[in-house]
Automatic annotation (TrEMBL):
<protein>
    <submittedName>
        <fullName>Ribosomal 50S subunit-associated protein YjgA (DUF615 family)</fullName>
    </submittedName>
</protein>
<dbReference type="InterPro" id="IPR010385">
    <property type="entry name" value="DUF982"/>
</dbReference>
<dbReference type="Pfam" id="PF06169">
    <property type="entry name" value="DUF982"/>
</dbReference>
Length: 85
């Protein structure tokens, strides 16, 4: 399983853990699994699945990034304007 880089990083705020720049499907999946404030909901599950699929080569990294941005918006951790590249 090879990591898949995003076209541009996503900046999120994880409360006491601070800011985090997420640049790839692997980083996004690790963040979702280990640091996410609410591990439930449709957006969370979709982002987790799409990041795994991108790592397996079944999904373009851009789709995984888009799902991650939407999940970050829903969780209230996205910093800045959402860019769904």
């Amino acid at each position: 399983m090879n990591d898949k880089s995003f076209s541009s990083p996503v900046l999120i705020s994880l409360g006491a853990m601070g800011l985090r720049l997420v640049s790839s499907a692997w980083e996004a999946l690790e963040c979702l699994k280990n640091q996410w404030p609410q591990q439930d909901g449709v957006e969370y599950r979709r982002a987790t699945r799409m990041c795994r699929d991108a790592l397996e080569g079944w999904m373009p990294p851009a789709k995984a990034r888009q799902a991650f941005v939407i999940a970050a918006q829903r969780a209230g951790v996205l910093i800045g304007k959402p860019t769904l590249k």
